[in-house]
Specification:
By secondary structure, the chain is an alpha/beta fold. It is 37% helix and 18% strand. The chain is built from 19 helices and 21 strands. It has helices at 32-35, 45-55, 71-85, 90-102, 107-117, 131-140, 184-194, 203-209, 218-231, 258-265, 278-306, 321-330, 344-359, 384-394, 404-416, 449-457, 475-478, 524-537, 558-567, and strands spanning 4-9, 16-21, 24-30, 64-67, 126-127, 147-153, 160-168, 171-179, 232-234, 240-242, 310-314, 335-338, 399-400, 421-424, 438-442, 467-471, 490-493, 512-518, 541-546, 572-575, 578-581. It has a nine-stranded mixed beta sheet with strand order 13-21-20-14-15-19-16-18-17, sandwiched between helices. It has a five-stranded mixed beta sheet with strand order 3-2-1-4-5. A hairpin with a 2-residue loop joins strand 20 (572-575) and strand 21. The longest helix is centred in the middle third of the chain and has 29 residues, at 278-306.
């Protein structure tokens, strides 16, 4: 009989569901894409319905369900932490405990209730792998390696904040563990908070701000010295000890002891949406440098204790593509692979894998050279019938172009003319990156395109960078050390000949870029489009940014895409073979204009 495993992450942030059958990924999606609530933490009802539908099965056909962490172990950590810091944390304690006592410590019962609402009539076996084991499983089992060192780094799971594991075949062994409250992820989150960004979503803004810092500025140097002398003790093996006098996340409702931070750095905590100064940029650079030091040291330790030639990574910190590139540049491992859904959403996939390979002791399906993520295109796809429903419901106007080569030529011409195009094709991506199926595309040669996209399309901070999508076979013409990066999880630097620059809209101040290499096997339609753009312009690169506005999840359905198109100043929208011209659309009723909570 087939073994069908449903993996679930929920109740913290970025809820998701994933389904594997006999070790093969069938589908995976985040709940936010269906509910349109960014980083929705609720039980992923819609995501579960989707993955079951994609497999054509009913809930009772499942072999097992795996939840991505151990709630009782997390509850133990909360109780012990409050006890250790007493009398600090009383307000946090009385806020958290009613929720735990009423719901979370009865997780099995709560899950069973949700399953019944989904049509369950029998008790499907439940597995609860630890949080970091779920991350480790999500990184190793779909990787292209038979064996590998595994590094997981995030804020916190139950107790662990960082683990080093070794994966071989279908086995994973946990070798080292760093425990709460000493957390590289929470250290970075504390600076995210102090610099006025939202934790659990603004960390990538902090990373994007850091290149604006001046590395040789005495202020930056002093900031880094103060961080390592006062806030965090970094050991040679990459483990850390935080000075908890300066942090309140263990027992409080805030990340930092803000008056102490303000005295330490000589600046006030930045208020959200307020002006960003050079001091803020320098502090962002300082903590980015410290984080890179920690991550590289952890990778060196993983190499030393496993002896592996390959590294795989997951956990929220694995989305720090600048730090990832430092590992690759250091030459510690011959090859590095990172789970594209590295955050908690990917924990759903890892939980399913852990139940299958570890809980059920099933052998691993392994194919040399290829990962099992299918380009991360694991979400829903929509057909012409869905597009026609959109046309009817909103009286939208589109031209249908049956020939895809003609379509790509038309779109390339619009892009070369400086137009911004929403590009919606086939299956939705799983994870935070848009990789060519739910993307906004533009010409990177246009010097003002970065500002235009931030101001008129994404409605976000002006410093935010955009990623280049480059034909994999041409990446070496533009970028140094241009290895494969299909999931947009590494940065690299422009070649000197390209600096000052043929693609200024995707080039940071330090000439770095978060590159997506576009492969004809993984991204056939985007690859064909960029090839068409290349024939027209000689340029093998497009701007690729996620199809959403600030505070909104990436679009899922054709309706989501058209509404986002109409709420912005995008020029064209392409859904499948249909092309929408902004100037031919009906006016959007006022009640359909929607504001999203700023992230």
């Amino acid at each position: 009989m087939r073994k069908i495993i449903l993996g679930i992450s929920a109740f913290y942030h970025d809820s998701a569901a994933a389904l594997i059958i006999d070790g093969r990924i069938i589908a995976a999606a985040q709940e936010e894409r269906f509910t349109r609530i960014k980083q929705d933490a609720s039980f992923p009802v819609q995501a579960i319905k989707y993955v079951l539908s994609e497999a054509g099965i009913a809930f009772d056909e499942l072999t097992a369900v795996a939840f991505y962490d151990k709630p009782l172990l997390k509850f133990e950590r909360l109780l012990e932490t409050y006890h250790a810091f007493v009398p600090r944390g009383w307000r946090s304690f009385i806020t958290a405990m009613p929720v735990w006592m009423k719901e979370k410590i009865f997780m099995k019962k709560m899950l069973r209730q949700q399953f019944r609402a989904l049509g369950a009539k029998v008790k499907v076996p439940l597995y609860f792998p630890e949080h970091h084991l779920s991350h480790a499983a999500s990184a190793f089992y779909p990787s292209p390696f038979q064996s590998a060192a595994i590094l997981t780094i995030d804020g916190v799971g139950e107790w662990a904040t960082t683990t080093i594991c070794y994966g071989d075949g279908s086995d994973i062994k946990i070798l080292r563990e760093l425990r709460f409250p000493h957390s590289p992820g929470l250290l970075y989150a504390a600076f995210t908070y102090f610099l006025g960004f939202k934790i659990n979503s603004g960390e990538y803004k902090l990373m994007g701000l850091s290149p604006y810092g001046l590395p040789d500025d005495p202020q930056t140097i002093v900031f880094r010295e103060k961080i390592t002398a006062t806030l965090v003790d970094i050991r040679n093996d990459g483990s850390i000890l935080l000075n908890m006098d300066y942090f309140e996340f263990a027992t409080g409702l805030k990340m930092t002891a803000t008056p102490l931070w303000e005295a330490l750095f000589g600046m006030c905590r930045r208020e959200p949406e307020s002006a960003i100064t050079q001091g803020h940029m320098n502090l962002a650079l300082a903590i980015q440098q410290v984080t890179e030091e920690i991550v590289v040291a952890l990778a060196q330790t993983a190499k030393a204790i496993t002896g592996s030639r390959q590294l795989v990574m997951a956990g929220g910190v694995a989305l720090n593509c600048v730090a990832n590139n430092k590992i690759r540049d250091a030459g510690i491992f011959e090859d590095t692979w990172i789970q594209p859904a590295a955050g908690d959403a990917g924990g759903a996939l890892g939980a399913a894998y852990a139940a299958y390979h570890i809980g059920m002791e099933q052998p691993r399906i392994f194919s040399t050279g290829d990962d099992a993520m299918q380009g991360a295109f694991l979400g829903p796809a929509y057909g012409d019938a869905d597009i026609r429903k959109l046309l009817t419901r909103y009286a939208a106007v589109a031209v249908h172009e049956p020939d895809f080569e003609t379509l790509t030529h038309t779109v390339s011409t619009h892009l070369a003319d400086g137009k911004v195009v929403g590009w919606f094709q086939d299956k939705m991506e799983f994870g935070p990156r848009a990789l060519g199926n739910r993307s906004i595309l533009a010409d990177p040669r246009q010097p003002d395109m970065q500002q235009q996209l931030n101001r008129k399309i994404k409605f976000r901070e002006s410093f935010r960078p955009f990623a280049p999508a480059v034909l994999a076979e041409d990446a070496h013409l533009y970028f140094k050390d241009a290895g494969a990066s299909p999931y947009m999880l590494f940065t690299t630097t422009l070649k000197e000949a390209q600096q000052r620059s043929c693609i200024p809209a995707v080039t940071h101040l330090d000439y770095s870029a978060r590159v997506q290499t576009v492969h004809d096997t993984l991204h056939p339609k985007l690859h064909q489009l960029i090839n068409s753009f290349k024939k027209l312009t000689g340029c093998s690169v497009l701007i690729n940014t996620s199809f959403n506005v600030r505070g909104e999840p990436v679009v899922n359905t054709p309706e989501d895409a058209w509404l986002a198109f109409m709420r912005t100043e995008m020029d064209y929208l392409v859904i499948g073979h249909y092309v929408f011209d902004r100037h031919r659309q009906p006016a959007l009723p006022k009640e359909l204009f929607k504001s999203f909570e700023l992230d």
